[in-house]
Amino acid sequence: MNLPLITAAIGAQFRDDIDVLDSRIKSIKLEEDEKDRAYNIFMTFNLDEDKLLFDDPLLYNERHTREFKYFGNNSGSSLQTYVVREVKALYYLLAEVWMDLYKALEKENMNNSELYQLLKELEENKFVFLKEKKGKMCINFKKLILPQDIEIEIKSDDKKKILVKDKKNEKEQTMNYENFIKYIRGEGKSKYKYVLVVPRIIKDGNEKIVSKHPDYIELIKRLNKIGEGTSDNSIETVETAQKRVCYICGNSKVGVSSSKTSKFSRSGINKFFTITTKNSARFLESTIDNYDDVYSFCDECYQNLLIGEKVIEEKFKGNIAGESAYILPESMMGEFNFNYISKIKEHVDFAFNVNDSLNWLKSVEAEAIIDQKNPYVVNFIIYRTDGRSVELLDAFEDIPFSRFVKLNELFKEKVKKIKPHLEYFSLSSIYHIIPVRKVKVNQKEKQIDIGRVLTLYKSILSDYQVERETIYSYASEALDKGIRQLSKGKIDNYENLQLTKYIGNTDFFIKTIIMSYIVLMKVLQELKIVDKYFFKNRQFWEGEKLMDEKKEFLLAQVEQIEVFLEQQGFTDEEKALFYLGTLLYRVALAQFIKEHKTKPILKKIQFQGMNINEVLRLYEDIIEKLRQYDKMTLFAENLINRFHNYFGHLRKRWPLSDQANVFYIMAGYAYMVGQKTPDITKEEESAVEKEKIAMAELEKLSE
To answer: What pTM did the predictor assign?
Structure first.
């Protein structure tokens, strides 16, 4: 994946449609219930009436971020020159912006501009102080219209709140800036939500919105090294500059520089550049080898990168495993068809968020999305951002789109052979069967072990090897964490397991997890990316043909179980544990009927893993409970007989790990959920029917 090249190619496609400066525009995220009560507020320097006030609320619209040029906050230690701010960042407009804007105009030799003269006029009229030291207030609060007997104080070490002093009542209170604006406007605790603060100057009855002023727009372009007239003392002037090679277009041009990377958004895709050091000296005399030792590019490609970043942010973002992702299709033939790659992006994003692989395959077929003559690969950047910085979680590179088709066909095939125990499976399902814990970091929830989900996705998509024991450990942990959460009064973590829909239906949670893992295991095995096989590779037993040929032997439920086990390719040891799991379910159902709603027998399962001695102790406990509940029926004896038949004598080393032991026991338990057995009582049958109804409702909710 050549990320800069992809970004620049996308930007070049929109060069005529998007102003380069608009690529710096930030978006505002509002909650759904805030949208109809959100307003912008003007910060008005009224030279005619000699007062400063916050007035004329304007109903917020998404287009206002572009109309009023909202660029967010200036990054790092750079000058605070962006004049339109969110209300929560009002500190900068009160403390720094006007001084820094004045300095920036001087630095860019714009002393003769109208904007510079307006700032001087504000200073002459004592609205602002333009030559104060850093940390001092640049706004004269005496000009601000405040309630009577009220003073305000801002401390540079707390940029989120303001101190309001009531001299008459000798009271002080600290409030955030939105509440402060409401307070001085006499609105109290109004329901209005203030979003953007837009500075303007009223002079001779004329309004000048600072962010729309041509001088301001020119200044911001220069500071971001956009367009002609940029000033950068580290770059030679066009007349004297030596030609250098641009890493993006590969052409030798003047003005090629690596310093432009400092102007990239700190939270955008361009920050994922690989800083490549070349094994040669920089700037050789030869025009062929005249490269910088880090990424550098010409003005045109730089602007393409900015525009490309904006387009990617708006049109190529997706969600993978609850994390933000850039999804970037790329033609292997070097062609670029924006409409086509947009469709691919939508379908790939859908693949990670749809429940049923069959629905995904139908959508791909309907769109005729596969192009054999011009194959495409897809690149993924999975990341987190707080708006100030960006963290790379993982990257999947050069995944053929055909790989998604193959995977979903495999999911469909394996689900078909395990129905009715599982109705659907997809790439999205993988995220919902591996426990992911959330913690609060800076008041925001963060998935702290999402890396293992992403690693498994990467292995499946890129044909990397997966360890069999890792999958067993994920399955055991999912059962352990899920059952523990379901036993609580309230689900407080592992939301990705979709536990809320299983409250009161723990057995169906077990069934979904186990059957989902069987499908996943069979797909991994067929892809040949596991270090050791899960099941025997017995193709003869798969398919409907077997069901027809063996129909006379399938009348008894034990024989139906046998067919299921052969279809899945279980080994003898796995079958033995499976049958132990079916007996475990018979005990659990009996306990449920006896008003033991928590099914105490399940507490005998150690989900972290059970060695063979612990398995044998579990067997003894189950036999004892079957006798206690008078469930030692002919059917139970048949299950016990099959257990002994496959378990055999412990003359050889037991081949399964402790976590695999747990998995196959719970596989037998999961199989029995919702099944009627020959020895079922009327009470038990009623409970099973209720389970089936609950399962059907769960499936409808998941569609």
So the answer is: 0.77
